[in-house]
Amino acid sequence: MSERLAIAGSGAIACGLAAVAASRGPVSVWARSDGSCARASEKVNKLCERLGTEPDVTVSRDPDVLAGATFIVEAVVEDAEAKAAVWRSLNGHLGHDTVLATTTSSLPIGALARASGHPERFVGLHVFNPVPKMDLVELAFPDEATAATRDRARALCAALGKTAVEVPDTPGFVVNRVLFPFLFEAVRLKERTGLDAESIDMCMRLGAGHPMGPLALLDLVGLDVAAAIGETIGTEVPVLVRRLIEEGALGRKTGRGFHVY
Hints:
By secondary structure, this protein is of the alpha/beta class. Helix content is about 45%, strand content about 15%.
């Protein structure tokens, strides 16, 4: 991998991306709290062990850990202001030709690029969870992105063993734009009929050949994240999703969503 990769964030996407990249070269991860730093270190080590790679990853709360990076990926919560705040806080730690990327799954790339202060070096790098298993990366560029930025983003995806597809800067890009209306319709079916989650998921696995049922997939994504995506792409979020969020049942990460884990 020709780029020196750094990741700002410590959640599932950040840790998965760090673990995948670790076999290609050193990776730095910036976490924003002691707790998230410890959890990210443990998660990355476990993922690297599962992948059979050496964990050549430095996880730190000090933003100086990003110094020297040529490609920085922001992977924080799906909120435009939170992402903009990250770029503002990191401005003094960025090289003059560092490519800036965001893993947003639904937010407008043009607006995030302008918030970064360097739209010519900005790219939407939408990787999918779980990162080690999912081959696709949706690449979305602002109008200001240079040819060099575009080339380097594609080259990074190739170095990580991913398939990059350039998509338009439209809310939800391609996958989520098509996927979430379908996922939420499965929720509404449950609301209307009372059919249990396992039966709905089994029908879609066995009848449509899906590797995972729609309600299990929502649990994997996280119901809070799913609701945020739905709002961004203009798809009505089902009442049951909002009720589970209020109960703190966000899916796999909390041990309960439509299923119990």
